[in-house]
Amino acid sequence: MEAAMGLMRRIHPKQSETALSALLSLLPHSSSDLLSQVDQPLQVLRDLESGKEYILCEYNRDADSYRSPWSNKYYPPLEDALYPSSELRKLEVEANEVFSIYRDQYYEGGISSVYMWEDDNEGFVACFLIKKDGSKTGQGRRGHLQEGAWDAIHVIEVGPEEESIAHYCLTSTIMLSLTTNDESSGTFSLSGSIRRQMNMDLSVADGHLCNMGRMIEEMEGKLRNSLDQVYFGKTKEMVCTLRPPSEVVLRLPTADMA
Amino acid sequence: MAEEECELNEKQKREIAKWFLLNSPAGEIQYIAKDLKSVLNDEKVYNEAASEAFPLYNKSHLIFLELPNRSGDVLVTTYNELEENEFLDPRTALVATVDHVKQVCTDVRPAADEELSSPYIEEFRCALDAEMLKYVAEAYPKGVCSVYCVDGKDVEGPGSNFELVVVISAAKNSPQNFCNGSWRSVWNIEFKEDVQMLEVRGKLQVGAHYYEEGNVQLDAKHECKDATIFQAPDDCAISIANIIRHHEAEYLESLEASYSNLPDTTFKDLRRKLPVTRTQFPWHNTLQFSLTRDIQKELGIDK
């Protein structure tokens, strides 16, 4: 299993779907471990009742059907399916509406979905998902990207309230890829995925939604910066190590940048 | 969901193994091999896959191997392949025998006359090789290059067209820093005697992989063309080297520009740093939001 995860870490993020299905066929007995630990780009279905799209994940799945956060119905229809309690469903509805506006503010498009369900410890779990196609044929406002995809999965475990404080454990995964293409510079493509965790104990005075929302916003900001400066930055450093820009070469005649 | 416990047959396993090997990032095939062997748990299938995948991987990644007698490095490419595991190094006039799976040079012998270019071609090839060595030494901290004749190697004198190819390969592997990268340039030069012109076509490919607590990869590719007049071997060599130097430096600049556009421009098409309001999202006003969509107009989303 460790070897399988090693492979997933090295294979190009764009090929992770192929790699995962190859691993699933080689290791059928580890399928549940693999599926839970390996991140895959998000899929989407359209809720025919509301006409809106919603994101598919393990958290809104029951058998082969997926529950829409808009209509609270499963597609394909399913009998005896799992639903959140009516109270939790109220919170889920509000979360979807608010998160949709958050998404619009930061992503200027894209699709979002929020799913909640009770867990065994008298708390609950919420999953906030965003999928954005930033390509110029998709919803990339400025037309820079020939291809661009951002998939975010935020899973928050909310512990039971104790003295008006609740414990929140957020695990966030971002998968992204972008490609620019033009005559003078050819094809430039960056892809990646990172996963981070954040734990906080917060007062419930402002409500769960507010707490979760702020954590997610902070996390997304951090991950965006990290991807841009640290991760992409390292690849840039590597390129400049392989072939330093001319100014550097002139200054250091035997530039061996180990 | 019906669980089909069907074992993959050997051919399918071999194809999967080959896929993983062929799609290894630069410099990481041995690590992939190790993990793959563990997952496959089938020595025979792995060995078959490796013997098919490694040669293809090595040639496409333009790997370079140390020659046994410390005469330098030999590149493994389709341009200098004599047999499946024999590669010519024209600079030293040696032929290296290579073990693709172990990625080492196991033997070396002098090249036979018919394996080398004619003296007429060799003048051009050698002059260009000398210029390229100078260029690569100054532009790449750890780069390897070579010049091969891919068409017309037996041309005896003026009157025929021929083609040389310049291969530049640089790699930096820092697995301890979770970072690896490679730069590959292939420049085809058609010597067109009939029109007294040289047509130059370049293909540049850069890759980098950073995987400390994450997995991020860069793939960049570029093609370019240029031309110059047909001159004496030394002058041709200098012209060609200048063309290559110019285009590669320009390409590096455009890569840097692509990177500097990222945070504020390119990335924005995926996710902005902040909303148009330039403030963080007002989560505490959620009560207002659930009542009406007018909020969107207030926040100016409709633009």
From TrEMBL, chain A:
Q: Name one Pfam family in it.
A: F_actin_cap_B
Q: Where in the cell is it found?
A: Cytoplasm, Cytoskeleton
Q: What's in the keyword line of the UniProt record?
A: Acetylation, Actin capping, Actin-binding, Cytoplasm, Cytoskeleton
Q: Where are the transmembrane segments?
A: none
Report the SUPFAM superfamilies cross-referenced here: Subunits of heterodimeric actin filament capping protein Capz
Origin superkingdom: Eukaryota
| One function term, GO molecular function aspect | actin filament binding
Give the matching PROSITE patterns: F_ACTIN_CAPPING_BETA (PS00231)
InterPro entries, alphabetized = CapZ_alpha/beta, CapZ_alpha/beta_2, CAPZB, CAPZB_N, F-actin_capping_bsu_CS
Q: Name one GO cellular component term.
A: F-actin capping protein complex
Q: Share an example GO biological-process annotation for this protein.
A: cell morphogenesis
How is the quaternary structure described? Heterodimer of an alpha and a beta subunit.
| PANTHER family, per database record | F-ACTIN-CAPPING PROTEIN SUBUNIT BETA, F-ACTIN-CAPPING PROTEIN SUBUNIT BETA ISOFORMS 1 AND 2
Query: Which family does the record claim for this protein?
Result: Belongs to the F-actin-capping protein beta subunit family.
Function noted in UniProt: F-actin-capping proteins bind in a Ca(2+)-independent manner to the fast growing ends of actin filaments (barbed end) thereby blocking the exchange of subunits at these ends. Unlike other capping proteins (such as gelsolin and severin), these proteins do not sever actin filaments.
Name-wise, this protein is: F-actin-capping protein subunit beta
From TrEMBL, chain B:
Q: Name one GO biological process term.
A: barbed-end actin filament capping
Please give the organism.
Answer: Salix dunnii
- Tell me the GO molecular function terms: actin filament binding
Domain of life of the native organism: Eukaryota
What the entry lists under Pfam families is as follows: F-actin_cap_A
> PROSITE patterns in the record, alphabetically?
F_ACTIN_CAPPING_A_1, F_ACTIN_CAPPING_A_2
Subunit field text: Heterodimer of an alpha and a beta subunit.
A single cellular component GO annotation = F-actin capping protein complex
- What family does the entry list? Belongs to the F-actin-capping protein alpha subunit family.
- Is-annotated flag, keyword Hydrolase? no
Q: What does this protein do?
A: F-actin-capping proteins bind in a Ca(2+)-independent manner to the fast growing ends of actin filaments (barbed end) thereby blocking the exchange of subunits at these ends. Unlike other capping proteins (such as gelsolin and severin), these proteins do not sever actin filaments.
The molecule here is called F-actin-capping protein subunit alpha
The UniProt keywords, alphabetically, are:
Actin capping, Actin-binding
